[in-house]
Amino acid sequence: MKGLKKLVLAALCLCMGMVFGQGQAMAGKTVKIGSFLAVTGPASFLGDPELKTLQMYIDEINAKGGIDGMKIEFVHYDTKAKAKDAKNFVNRLIKKDKVNLIIGGTTSGNTLAVIDIVQKAKVPLISLAGSVRIIEPVKKWVFKTPHTDRMAAEKIFMDMKKRGITKVALITGNGGFDKSGRAQCLALAPKYGIKIVADEQYGNSDTDMTTQLTKIRATKAEAILNFGFGKAPAIVVKNAKQLGIKLPIYESHGVASKKFIELAGDAANGVRLPAAALLVADQLPANDPQKKVLLAYKKKYEAKYGPVSTFGGHAYDALFIAVGAIERAKSNNPAKIRDEIEKTHGFVGTGGVFNMSPKDHLGLGLDAFKMIEIENGNWKLLY
Fold this sequence. Notes:
Shape: globular
Order of helices and strands: HEHEHEHEEHEHEHEHEHEHHHEEEE
Oligomer: single chain
CATH topology of the largest domain: Rossmann fold
Radius of gyration: 23 Å
Number of domains: 2
Strand order of the largest sheet: 2-1-3-4-5
Distance between the termini: 77 Å
CATH superfamily of the largest domain: Response regulator
CATH class of the largest domain: Alpha Beta
Number of helices: 12
Strand content: 15-25%
């Protein structure tokens, strides 16, 4: 009996040692998350809050022990919104840094430039950019968190229809997001009984759009729709005011930041746009499923950095979708993480409630968008 007891005790100790060893091995592992964001340059007001959000929450996660004992090793490069740099940095993240997952890019152009690279390398990418082309058609290794340009066009046209607007002047920039948005607007307008009576374009680095707006003023347009991001949309609304144009002006979700209001000044008042609920979190009803998440993120971010923007919110969503996937996968293996990202269901983020699937690598419906108007320099929830 004594011999049997010793044998059982030895076996038990061996098993405990194996379990302890496995736990220690998992605790010693890291999960490498890479990002390529436009922190400086023309899209900095998008990329800067994205990076700050990622760093803030990754530090917090690591301080609490990581993800199932795995610390996050974060590697970031600033693309300055240049597609060539985006390609170089993504190749570096994959080949040199050996990341398990990538979050970025900030702009549609940067994201579209690297899709073939991540697809070939089989590393999951969660984009923070707006173009519907990023996820349609579905690419196995590519996901995104912002609402698409198609969704923005639909939400805007729905609002125009409610207001009885049927003739619209379209003005867009020359970036990837702008061009994709323009294509969606032109394709969807007939569905809502809207005629595009002007189709003007500008360079995103232009400092004056009065020529295009003067042409628009000569049409029978009942509203102006500007699809763009960066400083240019603010110039459009300022120039329209200077020219005495009284038409309703709509912007895309590409201007969903206090920076736009600061740049446009009084000319921003009256502008309507579709945006994530984050901008009007305190105006949501108490029973809204997003309200708690939105207010918590807003409080944390603003305590450290100042006014919140939907762009930082997109990074929040991407990070915690990734964290949830890593937890479920119980691994830092890129393929296992990818599979779990695709299974994301019921995740309450800043952009809405995400329900992804093999056929939908965004997982948001049109109801995730809110229609907002700028009033006295602040966001006002319409519906």
